């Protein structure tokens, strides 16, 4: 099944790392919006504050074994924990389907995990932590050093395109509507993502994101969650999903676009 040793290592890394990193994402999702350290203190039950043992923290398995409750006080544990772990594994498996070398795979998977984390934080807390944008920037710099494509010049143009476009929208919104249409976290995010993706895939992401944001609003309305006129809608999840689509299928989207306008 695995004639290529790298393919076997990639599969093993994806299965074991997907849920393990997903468990760490839960820590980030809970603590970063609260301004807490993701290093200390050790994981503990929010209800009784007992420090959790290693066998309480096995991704997915511990939740199922303990039937979704704290071992010590019996308080219910949010189902978000195993769902985040499984969702992250799903993203990593999707990246594995596009396997093109261990280095590019690991960087892409960590990039997807960062996008996933900031989406959930922005959706619930309406902020995109600088720590996650910095993580994406570091991944982009490592990718620029280790991977031949996109070229550094294309990555720098992606940074300028991603941040510059949203900054311009924000400035125009302030001038004409006296409100900040785009948050600074979104601008920093697209600067980091642009550096990772390069300018062409960044352009694809920027074009897709408004439609994805509109789709999100329509889904909320269909679900009966009406939005007030002054209600702020988090744009981070739409940007993140657009970047994901661009990372996997951006080149195909560009080909379809150029074929369409070339008719």
Helix content: 55-70%
Question: Proportion of β residues?
Answer: under 5%
The description of the largest β-sheet is: none
Radius of gyration: 20 Å
Count the E strands.
0
Q: Supply the helix-strand structural class.
A: mainly alpha
What does the overall shape look like?
globular
Mean pLDDT: 88
Uncertain regions: pLDDT < 50 for 5+ in a row?
none
SS field, number of helical segments: 9
List the helices and strands and how they pair.
Layout: H1 5-31, H2 61-65, H3 80-96, H4 102-125, H5 130-146, H6 152-177, H7 184-197, H8 199-222, H9 236-261
Explain what this protein looks like in three dimensions.
- With 263 residues, this protein is mostly helical.
- Helix content is 68%, strand content 0%.
- It is globular, with a radius of gyration of 20 Å.
- The termini are far apart.
- The mean pLDDT is 88.
Question: Quick summary of this structure?
Answer:
With 263 residues, the protein is an all-alpha fold. The protein has helices at 5-31, 61-65, 80-96, 102-125, 130-146, 152-177, 184-197, 199-222, 236-261.
Characteristic key phrases:
263 residues; mainly alpha; 9 helices
């Amino acid at each position: 099944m695995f004639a290529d040793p790298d393919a076997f290592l990639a599969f093993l890394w994806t299965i074991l790392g997907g849920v393990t990193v997903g468990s760490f994402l839960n820590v980030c999702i809970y603590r970063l919006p609260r301004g807490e350290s993701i290093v200390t203190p050790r994981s503990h039950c929010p209800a009784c504050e007992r420090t959790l043992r290693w066998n309480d923290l096995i991704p997915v398995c511990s939740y199922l074994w303990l039937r979704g409750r704290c071992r010590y006080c019996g308080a219910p544990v949010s189902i978000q924990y195993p769902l985040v772990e499984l969702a992250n594994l799903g993203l990593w498996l999707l990246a594995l389907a596009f396997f093109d070398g261990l280095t590019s795979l690991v960087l892409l998977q960590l990039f997807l995990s960062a996008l996933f984390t900031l989406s959930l934080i922005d959706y619930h807390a309406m902020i995109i932590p600088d720590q996650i944008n910095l993580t994406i920037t570091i991944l982009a710099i490592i990718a620029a050093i280790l991977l031949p494509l996109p070229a550094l010049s294309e990555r720098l143009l992606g940074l300028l395109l991603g941040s510059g476009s949203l900054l311009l929208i924000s400035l125009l919104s302030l001038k004409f509507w006296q409100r900040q249409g785009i948050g600074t976290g979104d601008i920093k995010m697209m600067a980091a993502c642009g550096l990772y993706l390069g300018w062409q895939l960044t352009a694809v992401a920027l074009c897709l994101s408004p439609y994805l944001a509109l789709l999100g609003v329509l889904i909320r309305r269909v679900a009966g969650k009406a939005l007030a006129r002054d209600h702020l809608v988090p744009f981070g999840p739409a940007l993140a999903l657009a970047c994901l689509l661009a990372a996997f299928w951006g080149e195909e989207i560009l080909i379809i676009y150029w074929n369409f306008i070339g008719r």
